[in-house]
Amino acid sequence: MGRFYIAVLMVLMTIGTTAQNRTQIILRNVDGSAVQNNVQNNAQLFINAANIASASEQGIQWDDIDVTDNARDRVDALWQTSPFRCTETRMTTNLLRLPGNRFQVRQIPVVVVKDRVEQELVLNFSAVGALEDVYFGIEQHRYSNLLAEGRDLRDFRRRQMILDFIENFRTAYNRKDLDMLEMTFSENALIIVGRVLQETERGFDGMASLDDRQVELIRFNKQQYMENLRGVFRRNAFVNVTFDDIEIVQHGHHNDIYGVNLKQTWRSSTYGDEGYLFLMIDFEDEDQPLIHVRAWQPEKDTPMKEVIKLGDFDIVK
After folding, report:
1. Which of 36, 157, 173, 201 is deepest in the core (most CB within 10 A)?
2. What does the longest C-alpha to C-alpha distance in the chain come to?
3. Is residue 34 assigned to a domain?
4. Is the C-alpha dihedral spanning 160, 162, 168, 174 positive or negative?
5. What distance in Å separates the CA atoms of residue 135 and residue 137, rounded to the nearest whole number?
6. How many CB atoms lie within 10 A of CB 284?
7. Are 307 and 284 contacting, i.e. CB atoms less than 8 angstroms apart?
8. Beta partners for residue 282, in sequence order
9. Stated pTM of the model
């Protein structure tokens, strides 16, 4: 009798755990086609697989999910540093269309388990409904506002590409994806990093004064930056990067060049900071946008008038 009771209890616990890990995803704007039904099914299967993996502290089981090899590899790499779970048991969001008859599902609320940070997940799907990419997105209201600022259809489409680009860019840091980051920077990319210098002038009482702080801008080339980043990834168990306060500006004469200003929050197992990040992105090849300039300045010690912007550079193409 005791053994039977234990067996029943274990079954009930299993059922309860499974129920707690399930999220129902309902997509608006669907037409009932087989492809869009496949998107909804794969989105729900993936989120529930992530919920189960998070609860069991294991890897995601991909057996029932229609997923590309690239997406599976990226998610498995992200899972090593930033496992997550969906915080909703039932959620409704829009099915969005992307160029090339592809699809996107945004606004999936998740919590990154290791540091309890709330994020919004973005899922991209192929033309046949297979999961082809997963990354952390920016807040939906900010995303919509940035798209609405597009001056025409071409600018709107570019802004959509830029937001997709920077969401992928930030998530590459989370999954420690050196290969993707190296492809993102042009070979002659300029990397600028602000370092705070502390004045040590003696006051009238003989004590050192640290009130006057200056920021020194240090320049790196692509090879130096990637080598430094390799060491950062090696020393940290996890890296969590978030972007806020995003501004997008198209160059006045070179329509393929965009400047992106944003606030970056960096959290890792050994270090944390907040600063202003500037990216100069070239969309001459829309299939492979390139960053020509990446500049970071510490927020606390950088006046707004000194924040690096697109207008600070002379561009010759």
Report:
1. 173
2. 84
3. yes
4. negative
5. 6
6. 12
7. no
8. 257, 290
9. 0.80
Q: Is residue 11 part of a domain?
A: no
Return d(Cα 89, Cα 24) in angstroms, integer.
Answer: 6
What's 117's domain CATH number? Answer: 3.10.450
Q: How many whole angstroms separate alpha carbon 2 and alpha carbon 15?
A: 20
Residue 232 tokens, joined: 């950062």
Helix (H, G, I), strand (E, B) or coil at 313: coil
Spell out where the chain has E strands: 24-28, 84-86, 90-98, 102-112, 117-125, 131-137, 185-198, 213-220, 239-250, 257-268, 272-282, 290-298
The domain in which residue 133 lies consists of 19-137
| Residues 205 and 279 placed together within one structural domain of the fold | yes
**216-239 as b/e: b if 16+ CB within 10 A:** eeeebebeebbeebeeebeebebb
Residue 109's CB: how many other CB atoms inside 10 A? 16
Candidates 135, 143, 140; CA nearest to 172 is: 135
Cα 93 from Cα 106, distance rounded (Å): 7
Say yes or no: 200 and 115 in one domain. Answer: no
Number of domains in the chain: 2
pLDDT of 267-278, one tens digit each? 898 989 999 999
